[in-house]
Each structure stands twice: as structure tokens, then as C-alpha cells.
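Entry for the shared binder. Reason: the reviewer on the internal report wants the predicted structure included alongside the sequence.
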Amino acid sequence: MHRRRLAIITGLFLASLFLLPHLVRPVSAQEDPTGEWDNRFHEDEPERIPGPEIGDYLGLPINDDARLRGDTWEATLLELPENQCRPHPSDYAWRGPAMLRIWQEVDRNTQDVIAYHTHISWQAPEQTIWMDGRPHPPDYAAHTWQGFSTGKWEGDILAIATDHLKEGWIRRNGIPRSDKATVSTHLLRHGDYLTVAVVIYDPVYLTEPFIRTTDFVYAPQQHMAPYPCEEVDEIDRPQGVVPNHLPGTNTFLTEFPAAYGIPAEAARGGAETMYPEYIAKMKDMKRLPRPTKHTDR
């Protein structure tokens, strides 16, 4: 009897050794994106940190309405108290400054992942990506900076669908993204690198989907400080004054194409400027004279 019991226990133990790898194996080759991530800016300077130049709409599939919003935008809008603590919406927040943290929310009973959460350093926005199959809210539900997001695994890619976003921006020189836009985001982890691919569908300001990627590197020793923000009156303005350029009065729009030798027509953007074939068309376009450089004596 003792030998039989020992044989049964031994058999169960060996069976558990065989089953264990199958029980803990990731489903569909999932690549866990959780952890601390630091942003990289190599190919995106100076557009991401100092900011894009006025009138630089190159490669943006915008329509005339978006172009007018950019032409009338004035950078000192950011000095208004109501704009000083305005966070990046979730489709742009990856662009940084964006030290990034991703973590799981797990059901204690089933151990299923209910959601992924993100926290980004600048203005400390947090996004929830629901993984439990819940439906998106109805059209009349409130819109927020982070929107409502659901996720699912497509192989080793975490695919995220986001809607119910407040109006945001596609480029920080006045080019807008409307509150009717929907966003498809894909998180691709390859070892110590994380690529975030964002596709924006905006029926108000875009004529085609706009695709942009942002890269991060794994930073397990990263420490993210809090980001308190307080509004202050930086400049004394009469009440109700909102900085702007009236249509047709923005004299700064030609500085970008002139400085880089780009045809002014090309700098106006549009879906055509996204494609390589446009380079050949640019050869026959008129260029503005480059500005004269002045040196101090």
C-alpha cells in the first residue's frame, strides 16, 4: 500500500512538471509591455521637444479647415492660465516629454488581466486600457483627455481602440485633432525596446488616416517624479483677450519654407505630401528666397 501511494504521488508530481510550462505560457505569444520606459527622440528632433516651426504642415493629411486653424494659431495661447496645465491627450502623450510606466490590473479570483494602465511624466496623465471586453460608451458620453480605450492581443501586439477624446492636436503648431476622431494604437515590444504606433482617423480635419510611431527603451531603474502644476498669470492682458492671427495676417507662415528651401506650396501639407512621389512634383515648384544671415561685427 505504501509503495502504491508513493507511485501515485510520484506520478502526480511528474505530471505537474509537464503541465506547468503549459499553464504559465503566454497566450498567443503576448509580449508583456509592463514596466518603466524612457523615451527616445533621435529622429524626431526638433519637432518633439523645442516644438515644430510655425507653418510646418509637411506630411500631414490635413484639409483646409485644419490648415486655417494652424494659420490663425498663436503660440502665446499657451501662456493663458487655462492652457498652462492642459495635458497632452492620450494619442499625443507618447510624444513626450514622456517617461512612461505601464502596469496590469488583475482580477484576484481568476488572475485574468482586466486592464493595462499607463502613467506619463509630463502633466502626469493616466490612461486605462480595458481588456475585459466591455463595450465602449454611447456617443453622448463625456469626452476626456485620455478617452475610453479597449485593448486586445493580436499575436504579440497589444492593439488599442480609443474614442471619446476631447479635442487635441496633431502637431503643436496649431494643427488640431477633433473630438470626433478615433484612434488605433499598437504597442510592439521587441526585447528592451517598445514601439508605439498611433493611427488617427479624424473626419473633421484629416482626409486620410495619419500614422506616427514613437520609440521607448526599457529603464527598470527609472524614477518618475510627481508633476504638480499651478496656473499663474504670466502676462498682464485685458480680460477676454485671446492671442490669435486673423486669417491672412500671419506673416510667420513663410519663414519655415524659406529657411529650408522648401516650396511654400509643399509646406502647406495635405495627404499628397506624405508620399515619396511628391518629391518629383516639388522640383517644378517655386521656392522662396532664403533669408539673409546677419552676423554681428
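Summary line for the report: The chain has a mean pLDDT of 90.
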